[in-house]
What does this fold into?
Amino acid sequence: MNSTWIILNPNAGTNDKSLIPDIESKAKQIRTSAGQNLFKTQYAGHASEITRKAIKQGVQKIIAVGGDGTVNEIAKELVHTKTALAIIPAGSGNGLARQLYIPMNRSRAWDAAVNNTPVAIDSLEINGKAFFCTAGFGFDAFVTHEFHNMPERGFMSYAKASMGSYFNFPDQSFEILSQGKELINTKAIGITIANAGQYGNNAWISPLSDITDGKAELVILKKLPSYLLPGFLYKLFQKKLSKDRYYQTIDMPKTFTIKTTCDYMHIDGEVVKVPEGENQYRVKILPKSLNIIPGKN
Ligand SMILES: Nc1ncnc2c1ncn2[C@@H]1O[C@H](COP(=O)(O)OP(=O)(O)OP(=O)(O)O)[C@@H](O)[C@H]1O
It folds into this structure.
């Protein structure tokens, strides 16, 4: 049996025609038995199914080739298992890969995936759904929703989706509780729960977040007047955001509850429609729960 499986989402990313043949040839180079070691996903949820099979068969490492959606599907199955995850970034945002300093260059990412040693990172759960980078309510979830409906992928589409709706987006209510005590009660354009520091695309929404520290941060974003937006965006991409009257970041306890009236949320960049009548979310931190291969050791 091959001890490394590769799971590739052929639909991921921005239409790179060389991706599939390149990964096919790299997979052949590391094949150690007659068994299959490359699996192409055929539908949403397929990467999770393949991962469950890999765990049962004692596979030691899974190399995910795709974007954050594919990575999330695989990683959530690997939480609290011995199987390590490596990533070849092939999506549009690649948040977890960038957070782990995995090269965007495919050959260098492959070298890291094959040769580097895993580290244990934290994961988070929101109403039982695992995530590894960020989850959010309000404006960032709305932008993610708009982005997924755009014909083109990539950073420029994110910028268009954000700018087109920012000034009309209404404030939302957020109440955060822990152990029955109210920690926060506020109106804001959105909140982000951060395990990693960035959304993807090097947009550092929570620059001090450390994916291995056993903690999560909550970012509260208030609507900025237009003249402050360019400075905010500059700091976002330069990893320089810090507390002010429009941007707050709070260290969170190990478990907490969010009550909100938002219609959408995103979990690692995948939009989730909030079920009618559901407005309460339990968040739990699972320290050092996933073995993952970083870009640098
Ligand atoms: N063959 C397939 N057809 C349709 N959807 C698929 C297929 N394989 C996987 N998927 C789904 O596609 C979703 C998006 O994929 P992925 O995140 O890898 O790429 P992306 O959306 O281009 O990247 P990013 O998340 O960085 O924007 C995944 O959540 C997965 O469930």
